């Protein structure tokens, strides 16, 4: 299974094509719209989320509520395009006409300058329109297809916020998956710890007031994955490595860790590795889950726990210094519409890119042409693992 996205931030639409989904899987636009609307929420979001209402149009690969086995095509229209048609339209522009809102001043922390150097663009709008985090809406659409598949296979996933601007939520190991999902949805900062929720909101409001931005840490949990998904045989088949790649590819993400992550460097091995236990009812398990559900690039059967670090958004309303690529003069960087904090929304994006990698690994390991056969194969495998 793989996906491809196309489209620019202020272009006509975002397009997602997902290939490799088994035939006969229940799927409707409602499954995808629920995820897209979740991505738009969160304290600290900018005015763009008030303009757009992301709803998907499934254009191929689904008939009467079931997948066909052919590529699934999805479109999310950009409502704001009507104000940008002369700037972002695909038709040639009259040579005597000046294009509005060209960008010659690269913004620190963005792809603007590096992309302009790579592709030879003098108007860096050609870079920032595609490198914008608006593209993550297309990735969430792909991940929503994967999440739908996982739900039907008894695999549940949730994303939430662990930290914003140094304000850290306490872990809540006592919460069930259903409670984590419910509490994350109920919180405007997607935090499971109500004691720090207001502090996070205050920090976001202060950043906005200061014309600044703040980052944080997102966390994703996955339950219901059987042991042995992924592989130790080749580096590019290790599932934790694939998930790390997917998380790192999200705009503004700068680091990934599983389980206790970097804390493992500070502990002796006896306080890191998870002891193996066994019961007739459940089979093999681990006494703890310090390694976040992975050993040797494969799932251990324990919940997958992965965190991603998001830097502050680099578009600032008190912009940093930059240099005009045409005049080489020093200027303050240009300002585009932006959020003061997108960590709550990023938790939703992270949840969906993780879901896609998990679904992809499952389809590589089990029959993947017909969804009913996949369900039977997963159930049989779970029983084999339990009785191993």
TrEMBL record:
<dbReference type="GO" id="GO:0004107">
    <property type="term" value="F:chorismate synthase activity"/>
</dbReference>
<dbReference type="InterPro" id="IPR035904">
    <property type="entry name" value="Chorismate_synth_AroC_sf"/>
</dbReference>
<keyword id="KW-0274">FAD</keyword>
<dbReference type="GO" id="GO:0009423">
    <property type="term" value="P:chorismate biosynthetic process"/>
</dbReference>
<dbReference type="InterPro" id="IPR020541">
    <property type="entry name" value="Chorismate_synthase_CS"/>
</dbReference>
<dbReference type="Pfam" id="PF01264">
    <property type="entry name" value="Chorismate_synt"/>
</dbReference>
<dbReference type="GO" id="GO:0009073">
    <property type="term" value="P:aromatic amino acid family biosynthetic process"/>
</dbReference>
<feature type="binding site">
    <location>
        <position position="296"/>
    </location>
    <ligand>
        <name>FMN</name>
    </ligand>
</feature>
<feature type="binding site">
    <location>
        <position position="45"/>
    </location>
    <ligand>
        <name>NADP(+)</name>
    </ligand>
</feature>
<keyword id="KW-0057">Aromatic amino acid biosynthesis</keyword>
<dbReference type="GO" id="GO:0008652">
    <property type="term" value="P:amino acid biosynthetic process"/>
</dbReference>
<feature type="binding site">
    <location>
        <begin position="311"/>
        <end position="315"/>
    </location>
    <ligand>
        <name>FMN</name>
    </ligand>
</feature>
<feature type="binding site">
    <location>
        <begin position="130"/>
        <end position="132"/>
    </location>
    <ligand>
        <name>FMN</name>
    </ligand>
</feature>
<keyword id="KW-0285">Flavoprotein</keyword>
<keyword id="KW-0521">NADP</keyword>
<comment type="pathway">
    <text>Metabolic intermediate biosynthesis; chorismate biosynthesis; chorismate from D-erythrose 4-phosphate and phosphoenolpyruvate: step 7/7.</text>
</comment>
<keyword id="KW-0288">FMN</keyword>
<comment type="function">
    <text>This reaction introduces a second double bond into the aromatic ring system.</text>
</comment>
<dbReference type="GO" id="GO:0005829">
    <property type="term" value="C:cytosol"/>
</dbReference>
<dbReference type="GO" id="GO:0010181">
    <property type="term" value="F:FMN binding"/>
</dbReference>
<protein>
    <recommendedName>
        <fullName>Chorismate synthase</fullName>
        <ecNumber>4.2.3.5</ecNumber>
    </recommendedName>
</protein>
<dbReference type="InterPro" id="IPR000453">
    <property type="entry name" value="Chorismate_synth"/>
</dbReference>
<feature type="binding site">
    <location>
        <position position="39"/>
    </location>
    <ligand>
        <name>NADP(+)</name>
    </ligand>
</feature>
<feature type="binding site">
    <location>
        <position position="337"/>
    </location>
    <ligand>
        <name>FMN</name>
    </ligand>
</feature>
<keyword id="KW-0028">Amino-acid biosynthesis</keyword>
<keyword id="KW-0456">Lyase</keyword>
<feature type="binding site">
    <location>
        <begin position="251"/>
        <end position="252"/>
    </location>
    <ligand>
        <name>FMN</name>
    </ligand>
</feature>
<comment type="subunit">
    <text>Homotetramer.</text>
</comment>
<comment type="similarity">
    <text>Belongs to the chorismate synthase family.</text>
</comment>
């Amino acid at each position: 299974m793989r996906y491809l996205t196309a489209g620019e931030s202020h272009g006509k639409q975002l397009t997602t094509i997902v290939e490799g989904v088994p035939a006969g899987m229940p799927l409707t636009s409602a499954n995808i719209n629920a995820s897209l609307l979740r991505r738009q929420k969160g304290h600290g979001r900018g005015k763009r989320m008030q303009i757009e209402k992301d709803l998907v149009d499934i254009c191929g690969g689904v008939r009467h509520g079931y997948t066909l086995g052919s590529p699934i095509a999805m479109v999310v229209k950009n409502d704001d395009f009507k104000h940008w048609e002369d700037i972002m339209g695909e038709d040639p522009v009259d040579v005597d006409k000046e294009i509005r809102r060209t960008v010659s001043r690269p913004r620190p922390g963005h792809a603007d300058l590096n992309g302009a150097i790579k592709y030879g663009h003098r108007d860096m709008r050609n870079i920032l329109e595609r490198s914008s985090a608006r593209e993550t809406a297309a990735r969430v659409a792909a991940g929503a297809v994967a999440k739908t598949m996982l739900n039907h296979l008894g695999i549940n996933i949730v994303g939430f916020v662990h930290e914003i601007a140094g304000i850290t939520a306490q872990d809540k190991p006592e919460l069930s998956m259903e409670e984590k999902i419910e509490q994350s949805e109920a919180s405007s900062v997607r935090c499971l710890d109500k004691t720090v929720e207001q502090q996070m909101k205050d920090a976001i409001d202060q950043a906005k007031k200061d014309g600044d931005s703040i980052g944080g840490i997102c966390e994703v949990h996955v339950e219901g994955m059987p042991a042995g998904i992924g592989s130790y045989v080749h580096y590019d088949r290790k599932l934790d490595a694939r998930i790390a790649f997917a998380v790192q590819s999200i705009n503004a993400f700068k680091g990934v860790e599983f389980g206790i992550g970097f804390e493992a460097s500070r502990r002796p091995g006896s306080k890191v590795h998870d002891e193996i236990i066994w019961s007739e009812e459940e089979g093999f398990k681990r006494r703890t889950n310090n390694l976040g559900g992975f050993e040797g690039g494969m799932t251990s059967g324990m919940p997958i726990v992965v965190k991603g670090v998001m830097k502050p958004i680099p578009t600032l309303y008190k912009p940093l210094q930059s240099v005009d690529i045409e005049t080489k003069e020093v200027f303050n960087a240009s300002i585009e519409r932006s959020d003061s904090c997108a960590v709550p929304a990023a938790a939703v994006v992270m949840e969906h890119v993780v879901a896609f990698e998990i679904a992809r690994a499952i389809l590589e390991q089990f029959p993947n042409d017909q969804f009913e056969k996949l369900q039977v194969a997963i159930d049989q495998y779970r029983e084999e693992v339990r009785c191993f």
